[in-house]
Write a structure and sequence with these properties.
Blueprint lengths: L1 E4 L7 E2 H8 L5 H10 L2 E3 L2 E3 L4 E2 L4 E4 L3 H4 L5 E4 L3 E6 L17 H8 L4 E2 L8 E7 L2 H12 L3 E10 L6 E11 L4 E5 L6 E15 L2 E8 L6 H9 L12 H5 L8 E8 L12 E3 L8
Parallel strand pairs: 10-16
Antiparallel strand pairs: 1-6, 2-5, 3-4, 3-6, 7-8, 8-10, 9-10, 11-15, 11-16, 12-13, 12-14, 14-15, 16-17
């Protein structure tokens, strides 16, 4: 059984929609079972998925607690620095309405109540995320990401044949917060920030599809997805910046982007972790 109070900031919405947003990795089968059996009580009353809920409502969910409070996947930790592996589809933190019963941060804080995220990944992107359970390590990590004291490498599947095996892409990125997206520009217009991405093709992955390694020299929102799409090689499964027609040929594929390797550089502000390399191989994506 799970007891959960909806955050006060949450607007009115159907119960089913709230459950999907609060626990995004719950399977459809689990949600259908909860609905069919009316295994969710709202303020003590049994309700189905169409019932309206809002901030302040108390939910009692009669289901296996392990489904709603899964353990984090830890790659490495010494109790101060935490190296976690975020599954694809799981947000790192609560969304704009404060919804986030199951996020990477909530998972970490069940074991490490003082855990704080040192950087972020998009919900659709999986792989390595650093968190800190120590104030000094947290400040060092923030400075390390700001000063390029860590190096990140991603594994992705990109569309269309490449004319070069290796390339360094440079442009500018302008963020549209209202639309929650970015735009790649080829001149430094107002509001745009410089971006740099290194791309290396490693192997074919199928017809018109290639394994690539991506290194973001800069770390802007949606940089890799937008930069690769602008280059003419969108990432498979990216419906925001990519090729939707090509994505429909692979309907089971998620966004094929995974943070697979993080290196703490020799002069990094993360002094106690210099020269450490953390690796989490990308999954075998279903295409």
């Amino acid at each position: 059984m799970i007891e959960h109070t909806i955050p006060d900031s949450v607007p009115a919405m159907p119960l089913e929609r709230y459950l999907r947003r609060a626990w995004p990795l719950l399977s459809g089968q689990v949600l259908r079972t909860l609905d069919k059996r009316k295994d969710v009580r709202v303020n003590g009353v049994k309700r189905d998925g169409k019932a309206t809920v809002r901030g302040g409502d108390r939910l009692t969910i009669y289901a296996d607690a392990a489904l709603f409070e899964p353990e984090p996947d830890l790659l490495w930790t010494d109790g101060r620095l935490i190296v976690a592996v975020k599954p694809q589809g799981l947000p790192v933190d609560a969304d704009q309405d404060g919804i986030g019963a199951d996020t990477l941060l909530t998972r970490l804080r069940r074991a490490y109540p003082n855990a704080r995220l040192c950087h972020r990944l998009d919900a659709a992107t999986g792989g390595i995320v650093l968190a800190a359970n120590d104030d000094a390590v947290y400040e060092q990590a923030l400075e390390a990401f700001k000063s390029h004291g860590v190096q990140k490498r991603y594994h992705a599947l990109a569309l269309h044949p490449f004319d070069r095996a290796e390339v360094t892409l440079r442009a500018w990125l302008r963020k549209d917060a209202r639309r929650a997206e970015v735009r790649v520009l080829h001149q430094p217009l107002p509001g745009a920030k410089p971006i740099e991405t290194r791309c290396r093709v490693t192997a074919p992955a199928g017809p018109d599809l290639f394994h690539v390694r991506l290194e973001p020299v800069t770390g802007r929102t949606h940089q890799l997805r937008a930069h690769m799409a602008d280059y003419g090689h969108p990432l498979l499964g990216d419906d925001k910046y990519g090729d939707r027609a090509a994505n429909r040929l692979h309907p089971r594929a998620p966004l094929c982007l995974w943070h697979e390797r993080l290196t703490v550089l020799p002069d990094s502000p993360l002094a106690d972790y210099r020269d450490r390399v953390f690796e989490a191989p990308a999954p075998e994506w279903t295409l």
